[in-house]
Amino acid sequence: MPTYIMLVNWTQQGIEKIKESPVRIDAVRSLFKEMGGEVKGFYVVLGRYDGVVIAEAPNDETAAKIALALGSKGTARSETLRAFNEDEFRKIISALP
Q: Are the C-beta atoms of 78 and 7 separated by less than 8 Å?
């Protein structure tokens, strides 16, 4: 299953209700599971982003639906990256001319 990295920033609404974050993280896990995916890890980070989610989803369309659904809640904005593991990378470059 494809891996996705979501770089997350709280919105003003999200930071004002930061103590509700554990419930929101549980909701993210549930949404991924409901749509056939799985959250592999969640991290609060220092720097440009407030959090990072590492997850798997069946395909890019599903990952986009999840990102849009989460963004529509208004507590966070995210940038979602498709990640390729080492085996996938090796397969990709093996087909190069």
A: yes
